[in-house]
Design goal:
It contains 13 helices and eight strands. It is of the alpha+beta class and about 350 residues long. It has one domain: Orthogonal Bundle (Cytochrome p450).
């Protein structure tokens, strides 16, 4: 079964993974990457991510395929430059721009709305504009360019390349942090693309947070950061990553491409008890793969943490009802047409 094909993705996908997980490894073929092996269990996913830049590599995979000119990116935690740590978390916690934007958007919300169209995307773009120093009038262009990037049509993203080159010369806000961790212009451009592509997964996480708030009001009343962490574990907005082995592993030769399915690992009953049940009090909640693990963890996860942490504080002020929604699993997990209604407690 080619899990990387859009034909495989539907509302029963999570159930499909539960069945397939019993087989551990599933060889497949995809027109884009050729022969590859699906990795579906937590212990195997953890081992692969733990051994990146060693037994496994991300080079020339994921966003680095075909005619994509981007080089391998660094981690925003500075793992690729162990002599220095980039204080991204410190920068974000000291900068109140994001929490102010969240509060402003939340205070202007109507009591009934489409979260995707009326809240999450606009909130994420405003954060990108304010925090990264984008010109206000480039908002539409950035949105269209990032859609090309997410769908791996890098050759159509030249206007955004040019904008990044200008920002490299005069970095402001978060681009200063990105410039510090990047050794050269190409690496800076690559990091900026990944940072901004996080807009889509952040937007997805916001929508899923509202969905779970409507389903779990009993846990929402006294919620803290564990509420959004459990949401990310349950849904894994960034579902998988591709890795290539540099040596023989589990009977597969060096050079084998592995599709590491975080969405499956996060629902592995051998790691998370009763994994399909929302439980914000899980003792091992911090072990989820929502942001990956190790040197290739999501470079924008600190942004997601700050935004979702503030949103939980605001969301729990109300009761929420999901009027209609449809979960879409490709190319990232998000909630389509999520209409919610809120009422005062």
């Amino acid at each position: 079964m080619d899990l990387l094909s859009t034909d495989s993705w539907d509302d029963s996908f999570r159930d499909t993974l539960s069945t397939l997980r019993k087989q551990r490894f599933i060889p497949s073929n995809n027109w884009k990457v050729g022969d590859y092996v699906n990795v579906l269990r937590y212990e195997d996913s953890f081992f692969i991510e733990q051994n990146l830049n060693g037994l496994f590599s991300a080079q020339d995979l994921n966003f680095f395929t075909g005619d994509n000119p981007l080089p391998a990116m660094t981690s925003m935690d500075g793992h690729a430059h162990k002599s220095r740590k980039v204080p991204m978390k410190d920068f974000l916690t000291q900068n109140h721009v994001m929490t102010d934007i969240v509060d402003d958007f939340f205070d202007r919300m109507p009591d009934e709305l489409d979260i995707h169209l009326d809240f999450s995307l606009d909130l994420c773009y405003e954060i990108a504009v304010q925090l990264m120093g984008f010109p206000e009038d480039d908002g539409t262009m950035i949105y269209e360019q990032l859609q090309h990037f997410v769908h791996n049509r890098i050759q159509k993203c030249m206007p955004l390349f040019e904008l990044f080159k200008q920002m490299y010369k005069n970095p402001v806000g978060l681009t200063k942090v990105t410039a510090e961790v990047s050794n050269n212009l190409e690496e800076f451009v690559g990091n900026m693309f990944l940072m901004l592509s996080g807009i889509f997964t952040l937007s997805s996480a916001i929508e899923l947070l509202f969905l779970e708030a409507s389903k779990n009001d009993d846990q929402l009343i006294d919620a803290d950061d564990r509420f959004f962490k459990e949401t990310i574990r349950m849904w894994s907005p960034f579902s998988h990553q591709l890795r290539r082995s540099t040596d023989r592993w589990m009977g597969y030769p060096a050079g084998t491409v592995f599709a590491n399915w975080f969405i499956s690992s996060n629902l592995d009953p051998d790691k998370f008890e009763d994994p399909h049940t929302f439980n914000a009090q899980r003792e091992n909640l911090n072990n989820h793969f929502g942001f990956g693990f190790g040197v290739h963890r999501c470079i924008g996860r600190q942004i997601t943490n700050v935004v979702l942490s503030r949103l939980v504080e605001r969301i729990k002020e109300y009761k929420w009802c999901a009027l209609d929604y449809n979960v879409v699993y490709y190319p990232i997990v998000y909630v389509n047409d999520l209409w919610v209604q809120r009422s005062k407690r």
